[in-house]
Amino acid sequence: MQPPRTQERLSHEVFLPEEAHTIRTEVREFVQAEVEPHAATIALQDESKDTFHWQIFRRMAEKGLYAIPFPEGWGRGLKYPVLDTCVMLEELGYGSDSVAAVIDVHCILAGHVLMYADDALRTRYLKPLIAGEKVGSFATTEPDASTDLSIRSLKTTAQKVDGGWYVNGQKRFITNACVADFVTCLVAADGKLCEMVIDLKQAGVKVGEPDRKTGNRGQLTSDIYFENAFVPEENLVGEPGRGLHIALGTLTYGRMGIAATGVGMAQRAFDECVDYMKRRTAFGKKLAESQYWQFRLAEYAARIEAARSLYQKAAYRKDLGVEFPEPEAAMAKFTGTQLAVDIARDAVQVFGGYGYMRELSHDGSTYKVEELYRDSKITEIYEGANEIQKMLVAREIFGKEFTG
Ligand SMILES: Cc1cc2nc3c(=O)[nH]c(=O)nc-3n(C[C@H](O)[C@H](O)[C@H](O)COP(=O)(O)OP(=O)(O)OC[C@H]3O[C@@H](n4cnc5c(N)ncnc54)[C@H](O)[C@@H]3O)c2cc1C
């Protein structure tokens, strides 16, 4: 059950367009009704192909959530699609970061790569992706390359043959892969990095079992193995050699989404704390009467406000047409995700022993802060580790001649 919300009391949205308010309300209602009842089960389950939450995945499609990021003719054609998408992800992060991560990869990563594709490719992959008829995934990471995506590090190759390519190599940690129909994939073809759409249910492709992770257990990740997997010519996205640009443009969008999910998780941990501190007594006083925790929460209220403003500003700049809205996107990523980790750690502390419980044997109760503690950590690592975000900001401060 969700705790009483504090957001409207502490964070006044003076700049957010009406459209994004409407999306917030719509997604909030969806999360309460359709995600919240399953969130604890998703967070506690051990990963397997059978645990992918098809019901929520399909309901998000039916409700038109996958259409929010996309322009008219493909999606909802909203005026501020990036901002609306990030607001949606904040609300999903409040309910379940696993669910937020599934939609982030399906729509923002795989979907956004397809925005660089021609209409024919979009018709084959983007349309069914938005309808929830095909599941999308996105692959840059390999066993020996992720933060460094240069051509010297990437080992997945595409060899030109009549009518297309043969792809060989291995991708790692690929979200949704074990249930996905296709992957938008970064490969090296004739010394050039390219983005290609690769069907996963074809000869020459094998998807491994899902990894067993600390948190985000509803976000299934697997290795993908390519052995002479045929990719037809028309599945190339953009020009040959544009692959890294497309992947990085997509990951820049992705990192604003991760910043927003960080804010959503931070807000949830905060609300859980406020609610619990008003109820729990120690030394004859409520925890909420402890000035130590009052001040900690005051600091977190300010940090949540700042982190929310940052991701919204970054997203708004992208809606204005800035492809790489730096430094705000990078700032938003490390600010929002570090905040989520910090507050989740303190929330476990506020809950004491209960905060450390996956399930209390006495009555089977579960504790959201434990889930947030495990789920939040990955947001500091993926879609550009936070150190890389700080490098991007440092580059804006000092210039490339100092930072490289
Ligand atoms: C749950 C999950 C889901 C994922 N989903 C996907 C997906 O769908 N598709 C996909 O392609 N990938 C995915 N990934 C991969 C993810 O993006 C990478 O794990 C991440 O980019 C970090 O890469 P790495 O693990 O190879 O770490 P490395 O690249 O080895 O980096 C390790 C650490 O080194 C530090 N570091 C690296 N370079 C520098 C530097 N220059 N300066 C300072 N510090 C540095 C950072 O702290 C970094 O965290 C996923 C990973 C996980 C765990």
Q: Domain count, please report it.
A: 3
Q: Which band does the percent of strand residues land in?
A: 5-15%
Helical content band: 40-55%
Shape: globular
What is the CATH domain class of the largest domain?
Mainly Alpha
CATH architecture of the largest domain: Up-down Bundle
Largest sheet: 8 strands, mixed
Count the helices. How many? 12
Helix-strand makeup class? alpha+beta
Taking the alpha carbons of the first and last residues, their distance comes to 48 Å
Unreliable parts: none
Provide a concise account of the structure shown.
By secondary structure, this protein is an alpha+beta fold. The chain contains 12 helices and 10 strands. A hairpin with a 2-residue loop joins strand 4 and strand 5 (192-199).
Question: How would you explain this protein's 3D organization?
Answer:
The protein has 404 residues and is α+β, with helices and mostly antiparallel strands. The protein folds into three domains: 129 residues, Orthogonal Bundle (Butyryl-Coa Dehydrogenase, subunit A, domain 1); 105 residues, Butyryl-CoA Dehydrogenase, subunit A, domain 2; 160 residues, Butyryl-CoA Dehydrogenase, subunit A, domain 3 (Up-down Bundle), CATH 1.20.140.10. 50% of the residues lie in helices and 14% in strands. The chain contains twelve helices and ten strands. Strands 1, 2, 3, 4, 5, 6, 7 and 8 form an eight-stranded mixed beta sheet that branches. The protein has a two-stranded antiparallel ribbon with strand order 9-10. A hairpin with a 2-residue loop joins β4 and β5. α4 runs antiparallel to α5 and α5 packs antiparallel against α6. The protein is globular and about 80 Å long. The mean pLDDT is 97. The structure holds flavin-adenine dinucleotide. Flavin-adenine dinucleotide (FAD) binds next to β1 and β3. The site of flavin-adenine dinucleotide (FAD) has 20 residues, from β1 and β3.
